[in-house]
Amino acid sequence: MAFETNWSRSRHFTNTLSKWGYLKTTGTIALLAGAFPALTAPAAAAEAEPAASGAAVLTAQQSASESMGAFDDSLNGDIVVTGSRIVRDGYDAPTPVSVISSEEINTEAPANIADFVNTLPSVVGSQTQVSNSGALSNSNSGINALNLRSLGSNRTLVLLDGRRSVTSSADGLVDVNTFPQALIERVEVVTGGASAAYGSDAVGGVVNFVLDRDFKGIKANYEYGMTTYDDIPNHKAELTAGTDFADGRGHIVVSGEYFTQNGVDTIDRDWNENYVFQINNPAYAPGNGEPERLIRAHVGESQRAPGGLITSGPFSGLYFGGIDPSTGRATLGELAYGQVTGPWMIGGDYEYSSAYHHGSNSLANDEDRIGLFGRASYEFSPAFEVFGQISWNRYEGTSYYQQTPSTTTIALDNAFLPENFRQMVVDYNAANGTDIDSITIGTSNAGIPAAGSNNVRKVERYLGGAEGDFTLGGIDLTWDAYYQYGKADLDQQLINTWQNQRMAAMQDAVYDGSGNVVCRVNIDSDPGNDLPGCVPLNRVGVGGATDEALDYLFELLPSRKQYIKQEITAFNLSTNNLFTNWAGPVSLAIGGEYRKESMHSDIDPINYETGWLYGNYKDESGAYNVKEAYIETVFPLFEGADFNGAFRLTDYSTSGTVETWKAGLTWQIIPDIKFRGTLSRDIRAGNLLELFTSGTARTNSADVPQVANPNLPNRADQFVQNLTGNPRVKPEKADTLGLGVVFTPTFVPGLNMSVDYFKIDLKDAIGFITADQMVLQCFEQNITERCQNILYANGQRYDSGQDRDIDVIDLPYMNFSSQKVSGLDIEASYRMPLGPGQLGLRGLASHYIENETDDGQSVPDDSAGVNTYGGTPSWTYRLSATYAVDGFTTSIVGRGISSGVYSNNYVECSGNCPDSTPDARTIDDNHIDGTFYVDANFSYKFPAGPTTAEAFLSIKNVFNRDPVLIGGGPGGNNTAAYPQTNRGLYDTFGRFFRMGLRVRY
């Protein structure tokens, strides 16, 4: 027999073989199924009659797959769905489990499996290759990391065949693109705490990718995708083969995948040209009844221009434009200011001032992925089978963060200043008795390429072990033991970022005695500051930077090679008939695991030249180990009722011993209705980044209040934010409650529904205060602890009586907050014959009642119903209808989110507003629209000689709906560069076509 985890060991417990691939999910619900044809697989199944106790077993007639046109027969046999370590016939686990079949995945043909999983309502706020394009100073760009319950991707445990996988970054993110998509038989989503069964990180739940390790034959797949705008073209090719050997005792399966995509380097969509931002109201004053914040269109930047805007002094408002060919120097212009508020202005020359910086973040990454997978097993006897498994993945991707804006000083004798401007200053000094010898300009650095990253990740996983089934003293036992070694080699390379000291030397260009333009540092009286080979750089105007200067500016680039390793040794033993009590057989599972996680870095010597604009990499190293033991039981209480309990003892080398547990009940009160409930204690320990990072630094800016002169507009300070690890952080602890009811009405065959309430109470959450929060809590709320993390240029800490430019903000990891999440999951599915074919309906919805974070310092922040980045919509839902007949399958999918707000703490008003405070800011428009997308999928299965072929077409966002515009701000130097929406919730690509051909022999 081929090795199977406790998630998927169905063949040991089922007798009926079926080619039907639909998996009934026992998890979330769908009140909405009657309102709209809900989501279903290309085939659907009714639930089998419950046995005395055990795991959920779902069956259907073999003819269903033929009439529904299911292409992949990898789901032959009944499917056991379980969220625990114990598997027994007919038992629905007390923890809800949603299941996605391979047929569902194939029908919608996602570019990667994460794109499909992320459409589930319970999966909110995941990191994707789209959303993390600005992750420069780490290797996260391009990673697809799932996020259950909006608790954070590092609080979702992602498994492959029930086992952990090595992470693809130091902050614990498992990139699901490293899993062999062509071999995925199904995806099981446990929407509840599961730490007692599977260990740390399972706070929001578990996503388990189950492979078809017994695949036989050969199958190939080619897909091509592009948008309706004729961009983001991508290709995916897969080849898989499997066969038995040694008279069926052995089995081998191999699979390979290649994916390539041409990205779009800017937010190249018309909807992004509305210039919608959140700004401070220029008419606001405390007590005057005006709202403090405004949401406005046609908002641009007031403190910079593409070639430089003078921001202070008598020449404020003059900007340097394009290069005049006759002089080789910039032209002069005067900015038409709109209504100015801090770094923003409404109207005026808003488009010109924001040009080049606006929308300069990547819409889509360039990426290339290669994945190879192989597995072999050999059965010596039913009691002893050995197996080995290897996977190798390589990702290379390029994305752009932004056309970096900055503020800089230009000396009056700078060789690149236009002569007419220089004369203006000379004349002004003579007339006013002043001695102006420099100007300060804000610039978006037009002509200097946007900063970005080129990351290469290689992720390898090696697994070897043994397993078997045997009987001892009348007790049927199943066991497995394995050793797993995983490693991720991360090559982090920044592009188009500069060393601040080199930039300062290059831009300080003057004439030497021979009339040549040179770098001042090489001709001044201090030989200690010489910069050999320095090439002068013209930062005055648009188009003055030469290729020679850019080559020298980017001659050195920061980089780091980071190595992450994971070693696991584990043993599991389970039985479904330990003994029989008054109500039935008692099940028991026990096991233990040892795990070691480590990382170290190789730093290019140039990185020790500090002061990079981005990517101030440091040498990071550290390791920890975990020793765990668990026990779990299913104990029948009376007919139709079972107790499921688990306990795990975990010892961390960094933080000591912690206990997790679970207590669950199921009660089939009548054949039509089942009640279920769980109460659990779950944990998440600090990951390698949170424990050991030595200081990830990047440049940022914040909207800083003027303390000494509160009536003055806020400053836009540029500083370095420094994120540091903390080996003393202790594990987070979460108490999870789940209560649900499952309806399988006998009077409506084929209908299944469930409703589940969940509540998660997380304490001692590990995280850090953002730079904007640090500034607000220090300057506006006078929280001393936050002020101690703010440093000025002279190294002094924050002084409440002075206004000085911030130089550094320290962001240490700490156990500083709590989080409470509660809500409802709803699911329904229904299948029926309709005319000559089969109709399947399915719907899933999640409603968030609260998602409150409390840092213990400011007012708690409830993000339920918040549709900005990091928020959780009040309602998310997915509905579909599938009809199959004579080889044709059509699936229509609806995906939607409800309307929401910018913040639940905001007070919306347009006049006669109450006092605005940091805990209850007033704003003129706190509404954000929801949206609804329609997808259409078509496939046709047909014989092609000795093979079976399937042609398919998938259209996402059929009606090409633009995303809802959301105003970012009022702080952050990257606000204008990013899309004017929340791309974690709204579609930024537009209508997307995917088409291809699958062949199986």
Automatic annotation (TrEMBL):
Residues 424-958 form the TonB-dependent receptor-like beta-barrel domain. InterPro entries: Beta-barrel_TonB, Beta-barrel_TonB_sf, Plug_dom, Plug_dom_sf, TonB-dep_rcpt-like. Keywords: Cell outer membrane, Membrane, TonB box, Transmembrane, Transmembrane beta strand, Transport. It is found in: Cell outer membrane. It is a multi-pass membrane protein. SUPFAM superfamilies: Porins (SSF56935). Residues 91-206 form the TonB-dependent receptor plug domain. One of its GO terms (cellular component) is cell outer membrane. Belongs to the TonB-dependent receptor family. This is TonB-dependent receptor.
